[in-house]
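Milestone 3.1: sequence recovery, worked example.
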């Protein structure tokens, strides 16, 4: 049996797009008989992750058949040793000579899961997959690979419209990876241009059956929406998700039709940089707040019904490598509006299953929202087109098939290479 180690900055009970991606791939492989362990930071939320604060969760546990091993985000004993070394005169300069300026950036950021390096060396895995390269853990897998070779697969989830993707370290990481999986053709090209060898385009997925039982009418009744038109946003309430632009656009929409409701569902970001979202919400007038429905927490079982209650789904985000929420809206046959960035342009076919808008143009966003709400036939056709595309291309079953094939390929090649080396000796 192939021994698989998945590396992720966060995992359950932390939940978000990347965490869901890792969960579905890991549990999907376990259901097919594979031995899967997820290595992650011991944190309960993004605030603890950013600050390297231990979350007090179990260091080892089994979740839905997946073994989860959690490490101190501050680095434990190794992290303390690194901090002491950096305090010595010339310590930082000496380490920079070894790891380079870009490597020091990774070593200096949280989560400092340095303990991953000896773990990987002891475990002798057949395949290691590192997801979400914004964070430092992938760098520790890269360092371990320099000490003992193993197949390293990457699912970086680059948000190419954001500045962090320009870090020089990614050329080293991409060049070292055995293979990488891109969420879109645009991200695949980005990877090739930055040193990647083997690149496959996968994407994210969804289980259509989980959206079969939905009741938008129940959500409308629960929140007193009635038959009013509803514009919806579902996701983390971060600045890069375009929620400020949506709030500005809705002020234009409300001048057109004050009966329109804005539904925002998703947790509020604890990041300092996202405080502007709460400030904008606090500055809404009493009349505007009366048109706003906020659902900060909801059960997973309610998510399909929340989408079903919408007339149009809006996510003008630049912080996406794909955008799972578009698929979720499409499974409810809803038209979508996204930002005109390369990754989203690979997901939304403009004018067919949704519309695109410049991130900094709330006036254009308002125009698109009004256009969709004014033309129910157009909205329905877009929603159906998105539904058909999702069913045919973006299910977890298809993506797990792809990952299973890739893992078997690289693990087999690695074993053959090891045998040839042994014979030569």
């Amino acid at each position: 049996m192939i021994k698989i180690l998945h590396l992720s900055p966060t995992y359950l009970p932390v939940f978000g797009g990347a965490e869901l991606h890792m969960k579905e791939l890991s549990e999907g492989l376990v259901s097919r008989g594979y031995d899967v362990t997820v290595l992650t930071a011991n944190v309960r939320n993004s605030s603890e992750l950013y600050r390297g604060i231990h979350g007090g969760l179990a260091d080892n546990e089994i979740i839905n058949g997946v073994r989860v091993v959690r490490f101190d985000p501050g680095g434990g004993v190794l992290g303390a040793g690194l901090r002491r070394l950096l305090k010595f005169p010339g310590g930082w300069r000496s380490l920079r000579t070894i790891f380079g300026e870009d490597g020091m950036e990774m070593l200096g950021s949280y989560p400092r899961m340095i303990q991953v390096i000896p773990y990987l060396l002891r475990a002798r895995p057949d395949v290691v997959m590192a997801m979400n390269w914004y964070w430092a853990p992938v760098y520790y897998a890269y360092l371990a690979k320099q000490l003992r070779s193993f197949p390293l697969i990457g699912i970086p989830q680059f948000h190419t419209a954001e500045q962090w993707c320009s870090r020089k370290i990614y050329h080293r990481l991409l060049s070292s990876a055995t293979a990488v999986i891109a969420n879109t053709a645009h991200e695949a090209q980005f990877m090739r241009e930055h040193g990647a060898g083997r690149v496959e385009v996968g994407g994210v997925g969804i289980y259509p059956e989980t959206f079969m039982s939905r009741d938008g009418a129940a959500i409308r009744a629960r929140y007193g929406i009635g038959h009013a038109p509803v514009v919806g946003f579902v996701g983390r309430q971060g600045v890069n998700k375009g929620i400020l632009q949506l709030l500005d656009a809705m002020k234009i929409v409300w001048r057109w039709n004050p009966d329109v409701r804005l539904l925002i569902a998703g947790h509020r970001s604890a990041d300092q940089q996202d405080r502007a979202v709460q400030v904008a919400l606090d500055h809404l007038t009493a009349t505007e707040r009366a048109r706003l429905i906020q659902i900060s927490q909801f059960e997973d079982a309610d998510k399909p019904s929340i989408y079903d209650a919408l007339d149009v789904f809006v996510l003008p985000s630049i912080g996406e490598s794909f955008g799972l929420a578009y698929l979720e809206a499409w499974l409810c046959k809803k038209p979508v509006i996204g930002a005109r960035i390369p990754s989203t342009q690979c997901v939304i076919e403009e004018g067919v299953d949704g519309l695109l808008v410049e991130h900094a143009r709330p006036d254009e966003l308002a125009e698109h929202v009004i256009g969709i709400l004014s033309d129910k036939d157009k909205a329905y056709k877009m929603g159906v087109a998105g539904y058909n595309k999702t069913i045919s291309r973006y299910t977890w079953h298809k993506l797990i098939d792809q990952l299973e094939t890739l893992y078997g390929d690289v693990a087999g090649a690695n074993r053959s290479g090891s045998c040839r080396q042994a014979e030569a000796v």
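The chain is about 45% helix and 15% strand. The radius of gyration is 23 Å.
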